[in-house]
From TrEMBL:
SUPFAM superfamilies: HAD-like. This is Enolase-phosphatase E1. It comes from the Eukaryota. Belongs to the HAD-like hydrolase superfamily. MasA/MtnC family. One of its GO terms (molecular function) is acireductone synthase activity. The gene is ENOPH1.
Length: 245
């Protein structure tokens, strides 16, 4: 690791979030525990709201519950949420409730999106050099915008030209990167993708996208083969843009 020259044809930088812009620990030790610790209180506070009832209805096909059963119904939903999270389920119902809870947590200042300190200065330089910058994460576009809109660096949404989630396709399938290139309006080899996951890097590379694997504290280790095969960076500042000289 050190200085990594960016190929001259690169016009856009595509960023993963977890383990790339943001510590994995933030997701595992802040975001997910927040749901488990606060779901009962959140349901009690928002129970009468239509959005909350839609979330609950998705989580649990209810057969009419009387007022006296409210606590039992809430507890059943809480238990279901904890159970799904313990199995790392990614159901639409769970993701929807989590998204709404995180939205409230960010907006009230209970949670701030953590960003590695090299990220914002580097992105500003890339943009000054004429680069477009996009996010591609398995978290929903709404969750991405919350993280960057209420971050430890303030609202940094203006730094991004667009957001992609798994609606465009899974991150481990090369076709997803072709779709992103088409959506951005460039060729796949005009994109540099930064990720901490070799399987994603491999899929992007198969689509002729340039790739660098990001080494951050808390990320999964790489095999010796992966270390010797991929371009590695431990900070966004290690990317050297020829166009900025």
């Amino acid at each position: 690791m050190g200085v990594l020259p960016v190929p001259a044809e690169v016009r856009a930088i595509l960023l993963d979030i977890e383990g790339t812009t943001t510590p994995i620990a933030f997701v595992q030790e802040t975001l997910f525990p927040y749901i488990k610790d606060n779901v009962k209180e959140y349901l009690r506070a928002h129970w009468e709201e239509e959005e909350c009832q839609r979330d609950v209805g998705l989580l649990r096909k209810q057969s009419g519950s009387g007022e006296e059963e409210l606590e039992r119904v809430i507890q059943a939903v809480v238990d279901n949420v904890h159970w799904q999270m313990s199995l790392d389920r990614k159901t639409t119902a769970l993701k929807q409730l989590q998204g709404h809870m995180w939205r409230a947590a960010y907006a009230t200042g209970h949670v701030k999106g953590e960003i590695f300190e090299d990220v914002v200065p580097a992105i500003r330089k890339w943009r000054e050099a004429g680069m477009k910058v996009y996010i591609y994460s398995s978290g929903s576009v709404e969750a991405q915008k919350l993280l960057f809109g209420y971050s430890t660096e303030g609202d940094i949404l203006e730094l991004f030209d667009g957001h992609f989630d798994t609606k465009i396709g899974p991150k481990v399938e090369s076709e997803s990167y072709r779709r992103i290139a088409a959506s951005i309006g460039c060729a796949t080899n005009n994109i540099l993708f930064l990720t901490d996951v070799p399987r994603e890097a491999n899929a992007a590379e198969e689509a002729d996208t340039h790739v660098a694997v990001v080494i951050r504290p808390g990320n999964a280790g790489l095999t010796d083969d992966e270390k010797s095969y991929y371009s590695l960076i431990s900070s966004f500042t290690e990317l050297f843009l020829p166009s900025s000289t």
